[in-house]
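Q: A reviewer asked whether we had any structural model of the full assembly, not just the individual parts. We don't, so I'm hoping you can provide one. Inputs are below.
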Amino acid sequence: MSHSVQAAPPRPAPSDSSNRVTLGLSNRLLARPEVGALVAAILIFVFFMAAAPAFRSAESFFTVLYQSSTIGIVAVGVGMLMIGGEFDLSAGVITTSAGLVNSMFCWYFGVNLWVGALLSLAFCLFVGFVNGYLVMKTGIPSFLITLGTFFVLQGANLGVTKLVTGSVSSTDISRIDGFGSLNKIFASSFKIGSVTVWITVLWWVLFVALAAWILQRTRIGNWFFAVGGAPDSARAVGVPVVRTKIGLFMTVSFLGWFIGMHTLYRFNTLQAGNGVGNEFLYIIAAVVGGTLLTGGFGNAIGVAIGAFIFGMTSLGIVYAGWDPNWFKAFLGIMLLLAVLVNLYIKRMSTARKVG
Amino acid sequence: MTDTLADHADSGLHRGEPLIEMAGVGKSYGAIRALRDVNLRVNAGEVTCVLGDNGAGKSTLIKIMSGLHPHNEGTLTVDGTKVTFSSPREALDHGIATVYQDLAVVPLMEVWRNFFLGSELSGGRFPLAPLKVRDMKRIADEELRKMGIVVKDINQPIGTLSGGQRQCVAIARAVYFGARVLILDEPTAALGVKQSGVVLKYVAAARDAGLGVVFITHNPHHAYLVGDHFVILKLGGTVLDKNRKDVTLDELTGQMAGGDELAELSHELGR
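A: Here is a predicted structure for the entire assembly that you could use as a starting point for your response.
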């Protein structure tokens, strides 16, 4: 049949590459999600270098990195979830739930902390699974489903803690077996010269690198973008949309567990009301980092830069000696700017033009 | 393009053997009966054309074959075994690839990522295995060139292509991955004359490579150019089911335009 159907090449021969245009450098850069955040990060960095003398040391730089890592570790998961087109409002409060499950279970039953840590991991993964399962099976927006889990967890954190310990804080666990090794993994620090490096910074780098690899270079990463960008089309070409999205919710709750472990083993005791509001910090970090609110676009480096901006400003304001209450106002402005930049970039990168 | 089809077509196909058989298939969405008692055979090396007006049940029919919606009446037999597909993945695993009219691509993703979506080439089965990005870009580009499409940049988001080009990417993808059956849902609806010609050549090439082709269209002229077997649906049921030798283009056109109703109308409006 080859002779009958052999593609008679349309006049501008398809093999001719003259029709091909390489996009200009500025367009290619603008099409990358993290560029807006990077520019903002540099501006803010320079600004605090000039405005806050205390900001200018290596010690404070690593304190900023530590602060960024405590937000950034969960934010990278939230960013991937948002690329997958979903939200998780329970991501902040689950960090406290994770610590409370571990701490109170081990204190009440007098068992090794490792048992509680694993139990807490299973609990968090279960919460993530329930979030994902309900969203996928009911079709109700994840905003509502996870708002529900958020309140359930918030209430349960306070209620159960009060039942078990009689107050709203968990008891000190630093003398229970297993504390030393868990503390080393989740909440230790070491010195390089005069600089204190918290281990969460290393974990943060690892998780961001892993997420960047998964998103850009693996099959599953490809599916994350697809289920966020056009779930029905993704399903039609054979992407397991339900499993992919449930996996994303579980990734977020895993990272929430991780930060929960850090908080617990750093401070030995937890306030049951903590963690509320952090979910918005994660979302802000992701959006400032170029993640599209509607899904299908973003990357891990951008989210890391978003978390770094959060760390710089939250400490920079203190170093500069200003009233830290202004911090939230600043975050709000950053978020609005980021959304505007994202909108502009999305238009630029999907516009039919070259040059 | 012929080499692609020859390369990827299942070598065990024999012309005329039934690949998909539907017997008495029906589908209801809640209280709405979208399809009832449809019989259809898709044979290897033949083009089965499904024609019909809007709402006739064409899309429902292919959604059953491609695994998007399971049927609730009758039987669907693929390669001799009765099946009910619960996901498009299962249909793809049977070598059935579909080009959807409305569900084609993910706009914000690059052209090459769209081409391989759901069937990515990766270096291993473990979750972190790297994609073979270079191979994927090369193959996507080559396959598109064979269709006469040269995208400006294989890395550009597919949303920046025109509707016709997007449709061609979707077709090139289905041709590349569909080893046994190729289903095309109104592939020429969004295309110009020239691109329609390219698509019809693809349909013919797929048939000649031994694949079973299901070609859904509004356009009896396009259907008659390539079809071996014609089915016309109306309001969820079959109104015509004939082989090429038993039907003329005029009959197809007449049926599509309304058939007996049209004759009645012309009588009423007679002047």
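A: Points you may want to mention in the reply: Strands of chain A lie at 189-192, 195-198. The radius of gyration of chain A is 23 Å.
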